[in-house]
Amino acid sequence: MGDLSADLAPTGVLRAAINLGNPVLAHGTAAEPGGVTVDIAREVGARLGVEVELLCFDAARKSFEALTSGAADLCFLAIEPARAAEVAFTAPYVVIEGVYVVPDGSPVRSPADVDRPGVRVGVKQGSAYDLYLTRTLSHATIVRGEDGVVAFEEQGLEVAAGIRQPMTAYVAAHPGTRVVEERFMQIQQAAGTTPGRRPETIGFLRDLVEELKANGFVADALRRADQADATVAG
C-alpha cells in the first residue's frame, strides 16, 4: 500500500473533505463529526495505514473547492457533469432524492409544474441540485443562497429545493408548507479524488467503495447515523 499511500496522502495524512451541510452524509461538529462519509474516510485511511484529517465544511461547493485547490485528498460529492472534469469519482455508495417544498396553497403538484415563468426556486449554492436545476430548468428562476429554505422563507419564493430527509423535517416544523412527494432528481453520492492521481490509486478507491457496499459497511454506517432510510447504491 506504500505507493497508494504516497499518491493519495502525499503529506502522510489523508485529508478528507466532509460536508456537514448534508445530514444524510455527515452530522455533528467539526470537532466531532460522524456519519457514513466519516466512516468511509477512516476506513480508507486504515487500509492505507495513514492517519486521517477530517476537513469539515457546511456546503458541497466548499468540499469541492478543498479538493480542487489541493487542500484535501479525498471528497464525498454527488456525481455531476459540472464536477466530472476535476473529480475522479467512484461509483455511488448511496442514493438520495431531491424534492421540492412549496406553500400549502401552491398549484405545484409535481416537479413538472415548477419549470414555469414567474416561479422562483431557492437552492443551496453549489449543491448537486443547484447544478442539476441550472442545466435542466428553462423557465423558472433559480435563487441561490447559503440555504434554499432560508431564501424560500426570507424572499417569499414559490419553491425550495433540497434533499428529502431535511426537507421533510423542515415541513414538519413549518405548518403551511408541504413536500412535493415526487422527486425531481436522484442524487448519486460518491467518493472522489483528483483525476491526476495514478490509475491504481483511483482504482483502489473505486474497488474499496464496491467492497464497502457489498459487505454491509455502508448500510451499517447509515444505520448508526440514524439515516437507515437512505438507499445504498446498487
From TrEMBL:
It comes from the Bacteria. It holds the Pfam family SBP_bac_3. Residues 13-226 form the Solute-binding protein family 3/N-terminal domain. Keywords: Signal. InterPro entries: Solute-binding_3/MltF_N. This is Polar amino acid transport system substrate-binding protein.
